[in-house]
Amino acid sequence: MTGAVITADIVNSTKLSRAEYKKLEKGLSALLEPYLHEFFRGDSMQVFVKSPNDALRLLLQLRVAAIKISSQETIDIRASIGISSIKLPVKSLKTASGEAFVLSGRAFDKMAKEERLAIVCDEKNKAVNLGLKIIAQFIDFIFQKLTIKQAAVVSELMMRKTQIEAAKKLKKSQATVHKHTQAAGWPQIEMLLQDYENLIALIEP
To answer: Is residue 70 part of a domain?
Structure first.
């Protein structure tokens, strides 16, 4: 089957206080609970996502969870998504195999230090890979400019909440939430998520 694998680590995790790190770990674990995942070396993780359509949204949820955690340091998640075949059943990430695991790990290792996101599929899908690269670069550009307040709003919108619901949850006025929504580039993020799903549908197995 075709699936997605996320390989990631937390940027600047060592600069978090113990309380902040525990809060972040709890938030990430809650987001990852529906998926087979594993934390290793303290600040690194790998996630198996059965439906590739869900992988990018999940990763962006993880990123905003990290960005909004600390006002003292720039916290983020650096990650690669590999989309390809996976051998079933996947019972443990330590023993799992398939091209998606290889692609994800290889792409992560090739990422430049300043990069935060890479998305790749099989090399034979050249046009799709080019599109995924452009989407990753555009999203990275947006996310590396997110403020903590904007990330808090985007975090709620990523959960498919309305701006009204986000304002209520964050105890902010609707006008303030709308302002952060626009400044964060949320309309563009939504568009890119849809473009990602459209490209995934074109991948040849």
So the answer is: yes
